[in-house]
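In this supplementary section we document a worked example of the pipeline. Step one takes a protein sequence of length 146 as its only input; no multiple sequence alignment statistics are reported here. Step two produces a three-dimensional model, which step three serialises into structure tokens for compact storage. The input and output of this example are shown verbatim.
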Amino acid sequence: MDTKKYEDQMPVDEGLQGNETIEEAILALQQEPTEEILAHTLTVIRRRARANGQFIVAVIPPVGAESSLQIQAIQTEDERYWWMAFTGFDEEIKGGETVMSTFMADISHLFEAALMTDDIEGIILNPWNRALMLDKSLLQLILAGK
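The serialised model returned by step three reads:
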């Protein structure tokens, strides 16, 4: 099966429309990691947040009556924990070793929740491909411009 053809036919959820601009900005940053391009990338993310954009977030389903839905974290080599978020379904499936439960989250609300969660360092956007690590200081910068 031609996966590119399939991806072209996949409908894009309304909350994810426009997130390709984030992917393009991250790619530019990966190709030329300068402060100017980082600032541009953060501005693009801020604009998507202002436009009520959403990310796909991996979650851990509740187990038992007492538990609640939790955002899935990954551990980096330095043993710090980060939440994972994806700009689109195609980015989410690129790491596809395991099936993940996901939900759509408002970008601003996700960033605010991350800032209030002590056990994580921030959010890794698109951890399998066009990855961007947004630590809490960068999340604060993005939200400050809102």
